[in-house]
Amino acid sequence: MAKTPKIPDPTIERLALYSRPLEALIESGSPLILSEKLAELCGVSPAQVRKDLAYFGEFGVRGVGYDVRTLLKEIKHILGTDRQWALCIVGMGNLGSALVENENFRKRGYIFSAAFDSDPEKIGKEMPCGLTIEPVNRIKELVRDFHIRIGVITTPPLVAQQVANLLIDAGIRAILNFAPIRVRTTDRCTVENVDFSVKLENLAYHLGTL
Amino acid sequence: MAKTPKIPDPTIERLALYSRPLEALIESGSPLILSEKLAELCGVSPAQVRKDLAYFGEFGVRGVGYDVRTLLKEIKHILGTDRQWALCIVGMGNLGSALVENENFRKRGYIFSAAFDSDPEKIGKEMPCGLTIEPVNRIKELVRDFHIRIGVITTPPLVAQQVANLLIDAGIRAILNFAPIRVRTTDRCTVENVDFSVKLENLAYHLGTL
DNA sequence: CCTTACATGTGTATAAGTTCACAAGGCACC
DNA sequence: GGTGCCTTGTGAACTTATACACATGTAAGG
Ligand SMILES: NC(=O)c1ccc[n+]([C@@H]2O[C@H](COP(=O)([O-])OP(=O)(O)OC[C@H]3O[C@@H](n4cnc5c(N)ncnc54)[C@H](O)[C@@H]3O)[C@@H](O)[C@H]2O)c1
Ligand SMILES: NC(=O)c1ccc[n+]([C@@H]2O[C@H](COP(=O)([O-])OP(=O)(O)OC[C@H]3O[C@@H](n4cnc5c(N)ncnc54)[C@H](O)[C@@H]3O)[C@@H](O)[C@H]2O)c1
Predict the structure, then answer these.
(1) Are residues A91 and A64 in the same domain?
(2) For the domain that residue A67 is a member of, what is the CATH number?
């Protein structure tokens, strides 16, 4: 692993951000990108781009810019996106189903390897993507067998904590939680919460009483 | 509107966060909450909670704590969640359909008033929630008629910018964008981008090469 | 009515992150 | 091979945000 003196957390978030336009640039064939251009595409300052990248090495050429292909490869390596990650997901309702069908995750190396639900009606059903919905009591077994390290929670909020506990108990080390509740974990397990309503409330605030 | 000397942006985001446990506390009947307890529920420091709230007034009672009901009401007022907001959404695929069916938004005062798509197969279809999918060329008309101020984008990334332009042109002042691309706006319109892959990449980074 | 206890509200200190400004270094052209 | 141009990489200044520590105000109880 690259040596990490003390990387600001926002930097990591931005690295992921930078990779999007870079992917598009490769498609379009441009071999070179300047910090200024990349900054504009991502809505940050050029200095920010350079500083973020400099934490991890010298990826550019002074007076010239960054080689798009190399840069993307480096970023992907830093983020771990050059590997594949097995995911599991719990709660195959509307949102869960939308997620497993989405191509973007697979493209970036995130593979849904198991899907769980507690509803007897749903268990055993095969989804368009080919996965079969499994009962929650098989979490431990399948997490082990498929070497799953990341879990996604798309259950109702009331059971989200309980599900998180199951996942942690099964050896999951990172959780992406979509239920609008903060799930608690041990320090062996990282959590990212995604709460759309929070985003909306942000927007509403900025709109003011207008 | 409450006078706002200069509120840190993270504060706004946390206010929305605080409201979740408060809603639960009202259900469970607890009339009082301490900054320390609320902080724990939200994973922040007690001082942070107090400072955030103090930006907007004195909502607590020294030596006692905060009245849950009052506090929630104040937060909702600050965020604008005590009003109702009409939303429209463009791109009624898997994700879009999941969003309009979700109850949480309605509960918080966000009402999907119009849904748009460009697919002739989908236009005219009625969804379980009762909305009928409209063609994109009716955006301007319906945004005006329903006084819609917030737009949600759930189209493929390639057309997201184009859709954003349509929305802005129709008078939309705030956009919640789910397509994994940064959409550009005028300063008349705020944008919040939600990118799940960024969150996953964050998690993957923290897992390291493990 | 005064004293005690206690949690809030807040000025100040600390930390974190961003921008600035320029030195360092590579490329191309002469 | 030297010269000028251009963009990166980076230490320092600045800005923003968080944590600390205590003064402030309230309620309850004697
Ligand atoms: N749908 C959205 O657009 C959206 C948006 C934001 C947040 N969310 C949140 O995501 C979560 C899921 O939303 P949804 O719309 O898919 O809800 P949903 O009701 O369609 O799906 C929930 C699923 O979880 C399953 N489930 C319930 N208890 C379970 C348990 N103990 N173990 C395993 N599975 C269990 C249910 O059987 C169901 O299939 C909710 O917390 C919701 O608030 C959804
Ligand atoms: N599904 C997910 O879980 C998920 C997760 C993260 C991000 N996203 C992003 O959200 C977006 C939608 O995802 P999805 O899974 O619902 O995709 P989808 O393909 O199921 O739906 C896209 C919809 O947009 C419509 N559309 C296409 N061009 C349009 C246009 N010009 N105007 C109006 N509508 C148009 C299509 O007809 C389709 O109904 C994508 O950008 C995707 O990357 C989805």
Answers:
(1) no
(2) 1.10.10.10
Ligand (nearest to CA of B135): 2
pLDDT at A210 over 50: yes
Contact in structure between A167 and A151 (CB atoms under 8 Å): yes
Number of inter-chain CB pairs under 8 A, A vs B = 175
pLDDT at A131: 97
Query: Which candidate, B75, B119, B59, places its Cα nearest to that of B94?
Result: B119
Residue B6 confidence (pLDDT):
83
Tell whether B158 lies on the interface with A, counting CB pairs under 8 A: no
Whether residues A23 and A40 share a domain: the answer is: yes
- Token pair in block for residue B39: 């902080």
Q: Is the Cβ of A39 closer than 8 Å to some Cβ of chain B?
A: no
Instruction: Please tell me which residue lies nearest to nucleotide D7, judged from CA to C1'.
Output: A63
Range of the domain at A147: 85-198
Measured from the CB, is A8 under 7 Å from any atom of strand D? Answer: no
Shortest Cα distance, chain B CAs vs residue A137, angstroms:
25
pLDDT of residue A208: 82
DSSP three-state, residue A28: helix
Closest residue, chain B, to A77 (C-alpha): B205
Chain D bases having any atom below 7 Å from a protein CB:
5-11, 16-21, 24-27
Clarify whether residues A53 and A114 are in a common domain.
no
Rg (CA), chain B: 20
Residuewise pLDDT in 10s, chain B (210 residues): 444 568 999 999 999 999 999 999 999 989 999 999 999 999 999 999 999 999 999 999 999 999 999 999 999 999 999 999 999 999 999 999 999 999 999 999 999 999 999 999 999 999 999 999 999 999 999 999 999 999 999 999 999 999 999 999 999 999 999 999 999 898 889 999 999 999 999 999 999 866
CA proximity to A14, closest of A49, A59, A55 = A49
DSSP secondary structure letter of residue B122: T
